[in-house]
Amino acid sequence: MKVLGIETSCDETGVAVYDTEAGLLGQSLHSQIDLHAVYGGVVPELASRDHIRRLPILVRQALAEAGLDIGAMDAIAYTAGPGLAGALLVGASVAESMAMAAGIPALPVHHLEGHLLSPLLAADPPDFPFVALLVSGGHTQLMAVTGVGAYTLLGESLDDAAGEAFDKTAKLIGLGYPGGPQLAALALQGTTGRFKLPRPMLHSGDLDFSFSGLKTAVLNVVSGPGWQAEWAADLAADFQQAVVEVLTAKSLAALKQTGLKSLVVAGGVGANVQLRAGLDSATRRRGARVYYPEPALCTDNGAMIAFAGALRLAGGARPEQAPGVRIRPRWPLAELLTPAGG
Ligand code: ATP
Ligand code: MG
Ligand code: FE
């Protein structure tokens, strides 16, 4: 089964062709970073317009790389939410109309399910069940995953997401947008230990997180008396260490609570080298194992949407035949319908 996947939930336009037999056959991606950088964050209206401009070109590219035309597809999967309403509408409209023209089904996909399943695209994928740590720009969640569509929320951030904390802290330190990767790069040049930052909710006894206090602690440092700009790398290193410590401790606690031995990490912060190092060593000591998507598939992309759509269809999902553009800008993963019997 061949599925064309379309991702437009935020500031990346991604398209891919996934074949359940042959794997990923074509991928195209355009990041709008340059477009939004001057504003210091994503401007929704600009994002929507750029998706409109890029999507036809990217669809042609992905199909060309696959050496297939749209007639060879069995379905078109698109991100229906959560995300920016206008941006989602672009992907949904293009997917639904292309599917209608080609006489194939269009399947709305949950963006976080795409992230969550993306580690299964790796060369050495984990088996179900596993614990998933989803750390993206908008979400920080621990989930027990027993199969496609079978997700139980174990804990989540009560305020900022991990990626959001990285981005906001980067801004406080004076770095450009998007801050997460820049802060991580700066942290590599710093040494930890100069600043005593909190480890929010480390000992809360549950699997929830909180990152806004950490950001405030950084604000207090940089706006306090005696702050010296040359300490920025050390502050970045201490901030990163605090986040990594909390994410690692709670992931281990989730493995312990569920009795599972596999941890899957997904979402943009999953590209963080320090987080990977921390999780690798902590899990190894406990006889567990961590699985990641390749770094390029941690942030938003079309491949994870094509893949999630294909798994859903292979699992018996029956897309609605009624024409219509279906988006859901706010859509908790816990509300995903589990396939019957699953
Ligand atoms: P969501 O998926 O929750 O809707 P999103 O799609 O914006 O949010 P992703 O694309 O998964 O999120 O990830 C983007 C986030 O990952 C940003 O907050 C970015 O700063 C962060 N990020 C990317 N690379 C790194 C890194 N190396 N270290 C830390 N954070 C990173
Ligand atoms: Mg993005
Ligand atoms: Fe995302």
UniProtKB/TrEMBL annotation:
Substrate binds at residues 134-138, 167, 180, 272. Its EC number is 2.3.1.234. It is an enzyme of class 2 (transferase). It comes from the Bacteria. GO terms for biological process: tRNA threonylcarbamoyladenosine modification. Belongs to the KAE1 / TsaD family. This is tRNA N6-adenosine threonylcarbamoyltransferase. It comes from Parazoarcus communis. The lineage of its organism: Bacteria, Pseudomonadati, Pseudomonadota, Betaproteobacteria, Rhodocyclales.
